[in-house]
Write a structure and sequence with these properties.
mainly alpha, Growth Hormone, Chain: A, single chain
Length: 477
């Protein structure tokens, strides 16, 4: 940071930055609880509900790295404030949406604002907490903020939908956004990278095509057909965009995506772990809220309360994971995360209309524990060892992985369910979701596998070598 802060000041910055994550996470979990109400009010199909969630996460993922590099250039506090303002405006438009199409478009605007919030706030935290152990603990608190948003989201969402309607979920963001902006202006000092990075419009465009095309293909394939020209064209476009990125980005002096980061095995593994863990989370939350309300006839507030154990365990395990990482490194936390995610998803592979509530709650508790343990070590692996001047880009890649993973999870499980029950929600949802639960179990298995790979001595050596090549004058942390 350009201004030296006391420990009290650093903690204040951490809490204020965590507020942005709380705001975004609250929106995600509350919206999931509101999906059946949105379906009823706006006559949405399953794909429409998927896009309500995925349009937000895909657009956010597409612009995260651009926002991170822009913040490094123009000032992290300035971009964070801009992001909060755009997010708040998008929330207002969501609350006024007259149709599912308008709602999806407003969610895109929300996502543009959100893309300026999470990676920039993480970059501020990374530059504020320069001691590796202290930073690991700070990231643990950052992760706990996400867990807290999960705990509050279903309850607040359920209360608002029951007392008012689903629109209130978006309207509540307006006063929260205003308060966050005031706090940032008062307490968060400005910071930026010592050397500004050039803009990369071609790389940015390719990233949008890559993420949006593959998500579109997965979501719309059950309706249009996997071999339809539109779907095949979307997958081809996504593949060509990936090839173009691999060819074009290494030839730029200051690329949007510095592919050299991926020479670090812990960094690359962290990206896969974050994609897999958040795919499991996105799919888990999407399926669970639909199951509870459409199959078990829970009210929105009852569905929200049922998922609270998942959120509370995330809140409790996130700071514990941060302390564990600070003392023993990432391996114990990542192994715990992988085992818990696999176990919880596997428990729900035989879910039915009469599955005992105690069994569901147990699965939610185990999943929440695993999810709380995964974020801190994976995020810490992604940003640790990298020169602080590139913290915005590194943390943006990590956040992109989380957002794309969540969109991927919703897209995949929605496609699996839609291929069996069509576009309408009905009583066949429980049996149709069984293959989707097995898919989420596989995502948990990927977390476990790459956790082992990421924490070997060989992989740690690649991280040190990569950091030196990225910035020979910097001493790896």
């Amino acid at each position: 940071m350009e201004k030296q802060l006391t420990r009290k000041g650093r903690i204040g910055v951490l809490l204020i930055c965590s507020m942005s994550l709380l705001m975004v996470g609250l929106d995600v979990t509350a919206v999931n609880v509101a999906l059946p109400s949105i379906d009823s009010d706006l006559n949405a199909s399953i794909s429409g509900l998927q896009w309500t969630v995925s349009a937000y996460t895909v657009v956010m993922a597409s612009f995260l790295m651009f926002s991170g590099s822009t913040a490094d250039r123009f000032g992290r506090r300035r971009i964070l404030i801009l992001g909060l303002s755009v997010f708040t405006l998008g929330s207002l438009m969501c609350g006024l949406a007259p149709s599912i199409g308008f709602l999806i478009a407003a969610r895109v605007l929300q996502a543009l604002g959100g893309s300026m919030m999470n990676p920039v706030a993480m970059s501020i935290i990374t530059n504020t907490f320069t001691d590796p152990r202290e930073r690991a603990q700070a990231i643990g608190i950052w992760g706990a903020a996400f867990g807290l948003s999960m705990a509050l989201g279903p309850i607040v969402g359920g209360i608002l939908v029951t007392a008012f309607d689903w629109r209130a979920i978006f309207m509540i963001n307006i006063p929260v956004g205003f308060i966050a902006v005031m706090l940032i202006l008062r307490y968060v000092p400005e910071s930026r990278a010592a050397k500004a990075r050039r803009f990369d419009p071609i790389g940015q465009s390719l990233m949008i095509v890559l993420l949006a095309a593959v998500t579109f293909g997965i979501i719309e394939a059950p309706k249009l057909g996997w071999t339809s020209p539109v779907i095949l064209g979307s997958f081809i476009a996504s593949g060509l965009a990936l090839l173009a990125i691999l060819f074009y980005e290494p030839r730029r002096d200051e690329p949007l995506i510095d592919l050299r980061f991926f020479r670090s095995v812990p960094f690359s593994a962290a990206v896969v772990i974050l994609i897999s863990a958040f795919a499991a989370f996105g799919g888990f939350l999407f399926l669970s809220t639909l199951y509870l309300q459409e199959v078990r006839d829970f009210t929105p507030i009852q569905a929200g309360l049922a998922t609270v154990p998942l959120a509370l365990m995330t809140v409790l395990s996130s700071p514990l994971s941060g302390r564990l990482v600070g003392r023993h490194g990432p391996r114990p936390s990542l192994l715990i995360a992988g085992v818990c995610l696999v176990t919880a998803c596997a428990m729900l592979t035989q879910i039915g209309q009469d599955t005992p509530i105690a069994w569901l709650i147990a699965a939610y508790v185990i999943f929440g524990t695993g999810f709380g343990f995964v974020n801190t070590p994976a995020t810490n692996a992604a940003v640790s060892g990298m020169p602080r001047a590139q913290a915005g880009t590194a943390s943006a890649i990590a956040t992109t992985s989380r957002q794309f993973g969540q969109a991927l999870g919703v897209a995949v499980v929605g496609a699996i369910v839609t291929s069996q029950v069509g576009q309408s929600l009905n009583s066949g949802l429980a049996s149709a979701s069984v293959p989707a639960w097995w898919t989420l179990t596989a995502f948990g298995g990927a977390v476990l596998l790459f956790a082992i790979l990421a924490t070997t001595k060989w992989s740690e050596g690649t991280a040190r070598t990569t950091a030196i090549k990225l910035n020979p004058e910097a001493i790896p942390e």
